[in-house]
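Re: How this chain folds, sequence and tokenised backbone to follow
How to read it: Take the token row as a discrete description of the fold.
Start of record: The labelled sequence and token lines come straight after this line.
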Amino acid sequence: MILGAHLGVAHGLAKAVDDLKAIHGDALQIFSKSPQMWAGPPIALEAAEAFRTAVRERGVRATAVHHGYLANLGSPKKFTLVQSRKALRDEIARAELLGVDGLIFHPGAHMGSGVDAGLRTIAESLTGAIEEQPEAKSRLLLENAAGQGTALGSTFEELKTVLDLVNRPDRLGVAIDTCHLFASGVDFRTDETYGRVIDHLGSTLGLATVRAFHLNDAKAELGSHRDRHENIGKGQIGLEGFRHFLTDPAWAEVPGYLETPLDDKTYARYAEDLETLRSLVPALEGTAAAVTAPPTPARRRHSSKARAS
């Protein structure tokens, strides 16, 4: 897995690349504007070029923009839906300008309209955005939800429904948040449970659909439906849950972005979490290399079955 983190851009887009390298990361996720705004100020062409140059010259291996938090692409309310679709088109344009690999977004919530209606609305939102910007290259990645309230996308089946309705595998994919997965009731802390998850993922979405991870431990218990991130190894998931993902070769070239809590130590906390993740694979402890260690025989069996689905 290609390890990195979500970093701020308050001091400049290119500065985020410097910050990533300071914590020995290889994958960078950012907001392209305030996540609490429908639209942000235009990105200056010079700033975008400086960012792309820094990414290339500093050897950043994976990049993503995270969509803002206001959008609800499945909303039954006309005003919210119109604004959300406009915001998505804007985020796609900004991601293209920055040249990032993926645009990660929360699918939305049905707000009482029902799961089927909500999923269809999300698919229509994505279809419209793709048709309006057919040349865009940043892949749109639906992030799995924790399952709170009427939020959609907390199961592989719901994510698959949206992908099938849009039917643009060249433009779409999935980002798996480990905290959300755990909060939705999916246990992956043992070899056996991890194997079942991978088999299920392979038989529904397909492993190749997963284009990014958010690596977050969970403050709340399994199945809590509460989206509360914790630092790696400090929460309910624990180190073994992350070891399974990090040592599965299926994810060797997939980025994993930290979104773990920060404190007065700021990005030093990210550096600690990255070192903790690398320590799970002894050969990589203390390095910034991608995690590509071979799986255990039992895990290889599960992963192979999932890839063949």
